[in-house]
Amino acid sequence: MTDSYVPMFATWLFGGAMLPGLLVALVIAYLFGSIPFGLFLTRAAGLGDIRQIGSGNIGATNVLRTGNRWIAAATLLLDAAKAAVAILVVRTLLYSPDLPVGGDRALPLYLAALGAFLGHCFPVWLGFKGGKGVAVMIGSLLTLSWPVGLIFCAVWLLIAFTRKLSSLAALTAAATAPIFAYVVVDEWLAATAALLAILLFYQHRENIARLIAGTEPKIGAEKKAS
User: What's the pTM value of the predicted model, to 2 decimals?
Assistant: First the structure.
């Protein structure tokens, strides 16, 4: 990488030092990712504290347990959007705003995706207890490489409709994303997708245990039970 890819604000603050610039980009993305839209929307809609419902996380899947599909959909879109905005903000702060994805030159963008994911899953404002990262991974991949992002969504939808298991759909899409990222772009994006997938698997560790035990609830099961 060259100094031409260091964020302009980092050059001004740190005299062009690469590492501080990348760290600032990571922090900015973390702050965007830590915005708890699920919590804000459910409270605004008079649905109470989403952290006291279902799994207790702030993501769209848990918001859906309130029974309000529109709020859940809005949470999904906004969580994906905050990841996209984080990456685009970092891109605009570079000397080369049209920086393409691919190779080590795009490292600031990959760090932005990671920062947004960490912010969503471990928001400092909520005691580091956030969502599971599916929407954020979608937003990141769509922004970094829209074909890879669309494939992620297609895999999720295929598993969700055939197996009726939201967690299995997310895990399958995340597990296959690095493969498609490598084929479509290169090993750098594949490594980024793999890191996000590992974090997503960690956030779904309880779901994985239930899937193995055969006790994971299917999509719509809770609504039918109620």
Answer: 0.86
DSSP conformation letters of 119-165: HHHS-GGGTT----SHHHHHHHHHHH-HHHHHHHHHHHHHHHHHH--
Helices then strands, counting H and E runs in the chain, come out as 12, 0
Query: What would the mean pLDDT of 52-69 be, rounded to a whole number?
Result: 87
Tokens in use for 102? 């691919």
With beta carbons less than 8 A apart as the criterion, state whether 29 and 114 touch: yes
Taking CA atoms, 125 is separated from 28, 34, 79, 129, 219, in Å, by 15, 8, 16, 9, 30
Q: Cβ atoms within 10 A of the Cβ of 24, count?
A: 20
Angle at which helices 205-213 and 187-203 cross, to 10°: 70
